[in-house]
Amino acid sequence: MFDGASLAALAISLGAVLVAASTGAIFRPGAWYAGLEKPLLTPPNWAFPAVWGLLYVLMAVAAWRVWEAGGTAARGALLLYAVHLVLNAAWSWLFFGRKRIDLAMAEVVVFWLSILAVTIAFARFDQIAAWLMVPYHAWVTLAAILNWRFLALNGPRGEGRAERAADDLRSAWSRASPPAR
What structural domains does the chain harbor? Predict the structure, then answer.
């Protein structure tokens, strides 16, 4: 099971998730995220790297198992997996890099569907690989719910309720004030 070709395939699989995971290191939450109003279900900051680290290992092992089970016949499933990794990376760029909660919300829906498609495609080759994707899908489900709540609480670009309320108040004040002479 662990001959040279198998270990090389596992290394490639781990490398692919490392590339996707790197966007989380490049586009860090920072001060902008710290200033956002947080949804009730937001996990503590320490949970994100711990959970994502485990999920990336599970994903890599799942893809490796599919390659081992299906070989070149699994190319379609693995191509779908590669596309899904791009979507995984794109979310961090949209949410933390661009600070576009609205675009990240739209993207996470496509991302979520891609994980479902990958899980189904993996199941054709290896049931364990499909099951290894389930915790990841559950975590991204939570991420999608949180993204939706961040959008509701902070607006499309994270301007926040307080800033929107202040803008509304200034606007109302300017309409109610008599014109300057």
Answer: 4-176 (1.20.1260.100)
Query: How many Cα neighbours within 13 Å face the side chain of 56?
Result: 21
Which run of H or E residues covers position 56?
helix 47-70
Q: What predicted TM-score, i.e. pTM, was given to this entire model? A: 0.85
Q: Which two tokens stand for residue 26?
A: 């490049």
Predicted pLDDT at 37 = 95
Task: Write down the H helix ranges in 71-159.
Answer: 75-92, 101-123, 127-154
- Give the Cα-Cα-Cα angle 109, 101, 41 (nearest 5 degrees): 80
Block mean pLDDT (10 aa), the chain, length 181: 83 92 87 93 93 97 97 97 97 96 98 98 98 98 97 91 61 68 59
Only one residue has tokens 């092992």, namely 61
